[in-house]
């Protein structure tokens, strides 16, 4: 349930000029306004499942996004019933929408969205209704350009350098053919973000989120309530930490805490998680997390 200083589940991911929203619980628009981001230009929304605490903020986001001129479509992805929820909300609330809304329902693990240098895929979780997790993975980046090597090969400064950095072969003024591998270092890895919430603990989740630079994962209960967590198909903080450990994630922030814990009592969850995975953290409303490249 929403608490005065703890809104319902939602994560906004900003990558270059793209904005991606993962879940949209009640009060999401309040936090977004307070962050002072250009959130009305959100490119896509990814819904884990259609329980109220993960979707009731969606109608407000759709209406507020219509307050600016927008021609780009808003993509909404989620399990079955998300299209019905969006359409019925638009009809009942008589929404004024001045931009295209494209809703795509997920029926199997797949790449749901992709763009320049990245893709977002979904994978199944196990909850009381159909639920999915998401990962955003960047493609490998080109290696660093070596200007000294280019000069030594007789490649003049200018457009030819740019072509090599784009992966194109070039020819020097004296007719020598140069490949990008002659002047470029090894490819560099991209970044990976993962979002997992509302599921029982399953060891194979670690495979899906393996190598995450940032893993957002539910840690709803303390270990003493593991039976209750299993009954409600949720995870404990210790189980979330185990996924982070097994997946070799660089950083893990927990989310989706039970309202039984006050802000002060959340330290119980943190302590249990850090015994398994020392880099575990508690996420908080409007928390800003940078995800740097490893190099």
Structural class: alpha/beta
The main sheet comes to: 7 strands, mixed
Helix content: 25-40%
* Ends apart, CA distance between termini: 40 Å
Strand content: 15-25%
- How confident is the prediction overall: mean pLDDT? 92
The overall strand count is 14
Strand order of the largest sheet: 6-7-8-11-12-13-14
| SSE arrangement, N to C | EEHEHHEHEEEEHHEEEHEHHEHE
Walk me through what this model shows.
This protein has ten helices and 14 strands. Helix 9 (237-246) packs parallel to helix 10. The two termini are 40 Å apart. By secondary structure, the protein is α/β, with parallel strands linked by helices. Strands 6-7-8-11-12-13-14 form a seven-stranded mixed beta sheet, with helices on one face. The model has no long low-confidence stretch (mean pLDDT 92). Helix content is 25%, strand content 22%. The radius of gyration is 22 Å and the shape is globular.
Q: Which helices and strands occur, and which strands form pairs?
A:
Elements: E1 11-15, E2 18-22, H1 28-35, E3 44-46, H2 52-55, H3 58-64, E4 74-78, H4 82-92, E5 101-105, E6 110-115, E7 118-125, E8 131-138, H5 147-152, H6 159-165, E9 170-171, E10 177-178, E11 192-196, H7 205-208, E12 214-218, H8 226-232, H9 237-246, E13 252-255, H10 266-276, E14 280-282
Helix pairs in contact: 9-10
